[in-house]
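STRUCTURE:
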């Protein structure tokens, strides 16, 4: 039998969306296989940093 997966793209701002992302994960039907951040370099007041634009969430459906 083939495994079925869903791929979700979740727009996040890490400083304020923690509760929203947690609720999203809890509302999923299947098992979360992986969470992959899309990260790009950015300038901060302290110098070079990184920014997460969105997350890919891979869900295994039973």
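SEQUENCE:
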């Amino acid at each position: 039998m083939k495994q079925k997966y869903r791929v979700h793209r979740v727009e996040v701002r890490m400083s304020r969306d923690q509760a929203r992302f947690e609720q999203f994960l809890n509302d999923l039907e299947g098992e979360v296989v992986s969470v992959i951040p899309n990260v790009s370099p950015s300038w901060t007041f302290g110098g070079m940093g990184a920014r997460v634009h969105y997350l890919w969430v891979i869900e295994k459906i039973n």
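REMARK: Residues 4-61 form one domain.
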